[in-house]
Design brief:
Blueprint lengths: L9 H4 L8 H17 L6 E7 L5 H18 L10 E5 L2 H11 L10 E2 L1 H11 L3 E7 L19 H7 L1 E8 L13 H8 L4 E6 L9 H13 L12 E4 L3 H15 L2 E5 L13 E4 L2 E4 L20 E2 L1 H4 L4 E8 L3 E4 L4 E4 L19 H20 L2 E9 L2 H10 L1
C-alpha cells in the first residue's frame, strides 16, 4: 500500500500529462478536429462528452485544454494559433485544482479558468466572444436565474453559447444536485438540435477499481432503487456496517495506511453557513460536517479532514482511496415493493430544492427531488478507488442491508 500522498493529489490525477486510454485519446483527437473544423462557422458548434462518474471526462478535458493553449501560443501554422480559450467549472473545489495545475504548465494561466457566471457577465459587458470554451461538470450549470450569485439570465449554457464559437462540455444528468441546475437529456437535446454538434460517450470506469458486480450493485442502488445481492470482489473492499463508529474507525485506519480515506454523508443532517459547528449524528455517533474551507487546497487533500464529514459539494469530482458513506433518513426501504423509498421531506439541503417558476406540477417536483437525492448517492458512492463502506440510519434500510451481508 502507498505510504505517501504524492499520487493521491488531485492535481496529479487531473494533470494534462496523465496517460489517457485509447478511447480517451480518440476522444481528444476527435474534439481537437471538431474545434479546427468549426472554429470559423457562422453559428456556435457544440461537442458533448457524456459518461458516468469516474469515466475520466475531466482528465480528457484537462489534457485537451492544455493542447489547445499550446497550439494557441506556439504553433503559428495551426488555425488554433492566437485563439482565446477558456475552461469553466461551476464547482469551487474543482476550480481550485485547475488553478493549481495552471501554475505548473507553461501554456496555462490561472485567468483562463473561471466559474461560468463571471465569464458570462464579462463577455456580455465587453460584447466579445471566446473562440473555444470548455465546460467541466456542465450538469452543474444553472437553468434558472440566480440573482444572489449575479446570474440574471435564464440558462448558463445558452449564454456561454452566445459568447463562444465552439463549446465543449462534459455532461452527466446523473450528477445534477440542485433544482436550479436541473437538467435532463431532453433539455440538452432542445439546445443541441439547433446547432452543429457531436456527442462522445465514455463508458470505461477509471476511478472505482472494482469488478462489474460492484458497479452494477451501486447503479442498482443509486439509479434503479434496487438492492441487488451483495457483490464479491477480492480486490475491492466493499462492506456494509451495522455501526457507524465501527465504519469510522475502519476508515481512519485506512487513512493511516493509504491516506485519502474520507467519510461523507447524504444531506440529511442540519447544516447552516453561519460559522457554527453542525454534526452528523446517529446512534451514539457524532462527527462535525466539513467547515473552514481552505481557499487553495481541496477539502479531501487536507489531512485534518479525516475528522470531518464531507458532502457532495466538497467531494464531487474527486478521487478517494476509500470512502465511507452514511445514508441518512431520506433513504429508506419499502419491504413490500423491495425497493428504495426516497423521502425528500427529510433532506436538509433546502437550497437543493429551491422552487422554480417553470416547475409547478407537484408530481414532477417530487420526481425531481427524488432524482436529486439519488444523484447525490451516486456521486458519494463512486468516490472510492479501492473501497466503499456503507451505513444506513433508517431502520428499514439498515435491516435490508444487513440481510444482504
Amino acid at each position: 500500500m502507498e505510504s505517501t500522498t504524492t499520487n493521491n493529489q488531485a492535481t496529479t490525477k487531473l494533470s494534462p500529462l496523465k496517460p489517457l486510454s485509447p478511447k480517451q485519446q480518440q476522444l481528444k483527437r476527435q474534439a481537437l478536429a471538431f474545434c479546427r473544423q468549426h472554429l470559423r462557422d457562422d453559428k456556435t458548434a457544440l461537442f458533448v462528452i457524456t459518461g458516468d462518474a469516474g469515466t475520466g471526462k475531466s482528465v480528457v478535458l484537462s489534457s485537451l485544454f492544455n493542447d489547445l493553449q499550446s497550439a494557441s501560443q506556439q504553433q503559428p501554422a495551426d488555425c488554433l494559433y492566437q485563439t482565446d480559450n477558456h475552461l469553466l467549472v461551476n464547482h469551487p473545489e474543482m476550480l481550485k485544482i485547475y488553478k493549481q495545475i495552471a501554475a505548473d504548465f507553461p501554456y496555462l494561466r490561472k485567468k483562463d479558468f473561471a466559474k461560468p457566471t463571471p465569464f458570462i457577465n464579462q463577455m456580455a459587458k465587453t460584447q466579445t466572444m471566446a473562440d473555444i470554451t470548455l465546460v467541466d461538470e456542465a450538469h452543474l450549470l444553472l437553468t434558472k436565474p440566480d440573482r444572489y450569485n449575479q446570474f440574471r439570465q435564464n440558462n448558463q449554457l445558452t449564454e456561454i453559447i452566445k459568447h463562444s464559437h465552439v463549446v465543449i462540455l462534459v455532461f452527466d444528468p446523473d450528477q445534477v444536485l440542485k433544482m436550479k441546475s436541473y437538467w435532463n437529456q431532453q433539455m440538452l437535446q432542445q439546445i443541441l438540435k439547433t446547432h452543429t454538434h457531436q456527442i462522445y460517450h465514455l463508458d470505461q470506469q477509471f476511478r472505482v477499481a472494482a469488478n462489474t458486480s460492484v458497479l452494477h450493485w451501486i447503479d442498482g442502488f443509486a439509479k434503479q432503487r434496487k438492492l441487488l445481492p451483495l457483490p464479491q470482489d477480492s480486490n475491492y473492499d466493499f462492506r456494509i456496517f451495522s455501526d457507524a463508529n465501527q465504519l469510522y474507525q475502519t476508515l481512519k485506519q485506512r487513512d493511516r495506511q493509504t491516506h485519502l480515506a474520507r467519510l461523507v454523508a447524504t444531506a440529511d443532517f442540519p447544516y447552516k453557513l453561519d460559522g457554527k459547528t453542525y454534526y452528523v449524528t446517529t446512534n451514539h455517533f457524532k462527527v462535525p460536517w466539513d467547515k473552514n474551507m481552505d481557499p487553495n487546497i481541496p477539502w479531501a487533500e487536507r489531512p485534518e479532514t479525516i475528522n470531518e464529514v464531507g458532502s457532495i459539494y466538497t467531494i464531487q469530482g474527486f478521487d478517494l482511496n476509500y470512502v465511507g458513506v452514511i445514508l441518512g433518513s431520506s433513504v429508506s426501504f419499502d419491504p413490500a415493493k423491495k425497493r428504495l423509498l426516497i423521502r425528500p421531506e427529510y433532506y436538509q439541503d433546502h437550497e437543493a430544492f429551491k422552487r422554480r417558476a417553470d416547475l409547478t406540477d407537484p408530481k414532477k417536483i417530487l420526481q425531481i427531488q427524488q432524482k436529486i437525492i439519488l444523484n447525490s448517492i451516486n456521486v458519494l458512492m463512486k468516490r472510492g478507488v479501492r473501497g466503499l463502506y456503507l451505513y444506513a440510519c433508517d431502520p428499514l434500510l439498515h435491516q435490508a442491508l444487513a440481510e444482504l451481508s
